[in-house]
Design goal:
Distance between the termini of chain A: 9 Å
Oligomer: heterodimer
Helix content of chain B: 40-55%
Strand content of chain A: 15-25%
Order of helices and strands of chain B: HHEEEHHE
Number of helices of chain B: 4
Largest sheet of chain B: 3 strands, antiparallel
Shape of chain B: globular
CATH class of chain B: Alpha Beta
Structural class of chain B: alpha+beta
Number of domains of chain B: 1
Number of strands of chain A: 7
Strand content of chain B: 25-35%
Strand order of the largest sheet of chain B: 1-2-3
Chain lengths: 364, 147
């Protein structure tokens, strides 16, 4: 192993950082608040991947990284490590969610009905260029229904179990402090279901989408249908020192169940959830969960493949490390190439046939 | 770890829930009005930290960790050892402290008229916000027909 020292690098590095930050201009509270208030879905994505829920900090991370998402997630995860864990909340259950979007592509008459909620699913995607001509775009107000939607919606999977459509299962009843936690223990394979779902919850959206899409196109075992998709708010239920459980506030969450085909007399289901409203991510992630059971090792739907390769900070960190100096490694490749050429020329001059030596992979 | 019946009682849980969602400025203003009559108070804790939020998977019914929520926490005590506690989502130590002050006041002196009025107003405010939102949501209800 050899190293290359870079002379004069300290000043260049300082100036490079200054150049990056200078291009972003002054970051103040007003900019952070504007990002927070106007880009909720971007904020949600960053909070989900950072597995840290705080809209203000997510907006700050976006502001100071200029919207470079992997950097924003990295600084949030790093900041998270500076904070003590004060408590573990009561587990969120689906039937307790304040549900604002709930659809099923598998069953049209689900208990509680279907609510589109905030979506562009059925809208033309047209860029509002008039805004650039000085005509602000203000959406027309929603016509309020006479009655509010129910605060709680029943679990479709529970209803399906009652109908004998989904295999019966028992709640795990693990104490909250004993739930496996990836932030405190390594991801080992085969992963526990708790680890798999936690890893998918904090996975990188684009990575999950790419692998989920691959499975949906035919590189998986099962083509999904959305059994139920929910965008909702969950209460963060904590405990007062006197023992009283109370909600310290709400967080936005997404959940998806996808189903494929009958197996053993029951519908197969895949599940995923994440912080924030990010339905593409949870549908793709649930597809990966659905495909995991019989996935060939090494395939994109095998859990070791998709969990490792959708881990945002590790994936981006490994990718960008290749731009750091690899001069010694590369020099050895050049030396080997020149040596082979010289030997080949010498062999040809002597009238011999040159047989190349087997290549060895450089040690990086 | 969690029981169905909170030891502090449903009223206490409801009050804490209202305080945690109360408007920041009105919460702090009301807490200020209570402080003068509360005597010496010791701050046990006033800090930010994380609450891990588990969720139950609807398919395997396994609990897993969704991620952590940033919260602000305050715990105070009076000379007699009564405790006031506040925890709110977000980074606002003053909000958590104001919640703890009101909690301690109610613990020691009961719900005075001004606090009862404050709690009723904040409960109505958040309920109105929820109702408006859920009426907007209900407007998006769809009936699917098969042709």
């Amino acid at each position: 192993m050899a190293y290359v020292a870079t002379r004069g690098g300290e000043k260049a590095i300082e100036q490079a950082e200054r150049l990056f930050r200078q291009d972003l201009g002054t970051i103040d509270a007003a900019r952070v608040e504007t990002i927070r208030a106007t880009m909720p879905y971007l904020i949600d994505r960053v909070m989900g991947e950072a597995s840290l829920y705080d809209e203000e900090l997510a907006a700050l991370a976006l502001a100071q990284t200029g919207g470079e998402l992997s950097e924003a997630v990295l600084v949030l995860r790093a900041w998270r490590t500076t904070q003590p864990r004060l408590a573990i909340a009561r587990p969120v259950q689906q039937h307790e969610l304040l549900t604002q979007r709930r659809i099923s592509a598998a069953f049209k008459d689900i208990p509680g009905g279907q609510i589109l909620g905030p979506t562009l699913d059925y809208s033309h995607r047209v860029l509002a260029t008039d805004v650039l001509e000085g005509k602000p775009f203000t959406a027309p107000a929603v016509d309020l229904a006479d009655q509010p939607a129910p605060a709680r919606q029943p679990s479709l999977a529970d209803w399906q179990r009652q109908q004998g459509l989904v295999a019966p299962s028992e709640a795990s009843n693990v104490a909250p402090q004993d739930i496996p936690d990836l932030t405190r223990e390594p991801l080992l394979f085969p992963a526990s279901r708790a680890h798999r779902l936690q890893s998918l919850a904090r996975a990188e959206t684009g990575g999950v989408l790419a692998l989920g899409y691959a499975a949906q196109r035919g590189y998986g075992n099962a083509h999904p249908t959305v059994n139920e998709l929910r965008l909702a708010e969950a209460e963060v239920v904590v405990r007062h020192p006197r023992g009283t459980e109370f909600s310290a506030g709400r967080v936005r969450v997404s959940q998806a169940e996808v189903t494929s085909k009958e197996k053993g007399g029951y519908l197969e289901l895949g599940f995923a959830a994440t912080f924030g409203w990010n339905e593409v991510k949870v549908i793709a992630a649930a597809t990966l969960d659905l495909n995991s059971a019989e996935a060939p090792v090494g395939s994109a739907v095998h859990e070791e493949f998709y969990l490792y390769h959708t881990e945002s900070v590790e994936a981006s960190g490994f990718c960008i490390h290749f731009k750091l100096p690899h001069y010694v490694t590369f020099q050895s490749i050049l030396d080997a190439m020149r040596d082979a050429k010289a030997k080949k020329a010498a062999a040809e001059a002597a009238g011999d046939v040159y047989v190349a030596e087997p290549e060895e992979e450089p040690v990086i | 770890m969690f029981n169905e019946t909170p030891p502090g009682g449903a009223d206490h849980a409801q009050m804490l829930g209202i305080l945690a969602r109360a408007r920041s400025e009105t919460l702090k203003r009301h807490a200020e009005t209570l402080l003068a009559d509360m005597g010496e108070i010791t701050v046990v804790a006033n800090r930010t930290g994380l609450v891990m939020v588990p969720m139950r998977d609807t398919v395997g019914q396994v609990d897993f960790h969704l991620g952590e929520v940033l919260v602000s926490e305050a715990q105070i005590a009076d000379r007699a050892g009564h405790i006031g506690y506040g925890m709110v989502t977000g980074r606002d130590l003053e909000r958590a402290m104001a919640m703890a002050v009101i909690d301690l006041s109610v613990t020691v002196r009961g719900t005075d008229a001004a606090t009862a009025r404050f709690l009723a107003e904040e409960k109505a405010y958040t309920a109105q916000a929820d109702e408006t939102r859920m009426r907007q949501v209900e407007a998006t209800r769809v009936e699917m027909e098969t042709f």
